[in-house]
Amino acid sequence: MFKRERNKKGGSSVQWKNMAGIPSQPNDKQCGYFVMRYMRDIIHDTNLSFADKWARRANHVYGQVEIDEVRNELTSYVLKNILKL
């Protein structure tokens, strides 16, 4: 997350804030799936205090089942909407 602040010259700068609870990936080959799963969780979250809720999930790691859900959703979307199969 980031917070926009004005600097002394009247311009603005972005200050990034690391959020606790963001799931980590076990290797460097699945980052896209982890990002997509994290975005899916954000979209489906009805709780508006998202940052507070995820801070309590520190050290969460997505399991294979959660990553496979994203793979299956993406595959279904591509087949149905892009390839029209």
UniProtKB/TrEMBL annotation:
A GO term for molecular function: cysteine-type peptidase activity
Origin superkingdom: Eukaryota
Keyword terms of this UniProt record: Hydrolase, Protease
Domain spans labelled Ubiquitin-like protease family profile: 7-52
Biological-process GO terms, alphabetical: proteolysis
Segments for region (Disordered): 1-27
Family: Belongs to the peptidase C48 family.
Full protein name: Putative Ulp1 protease family catalytic domain-containing protein
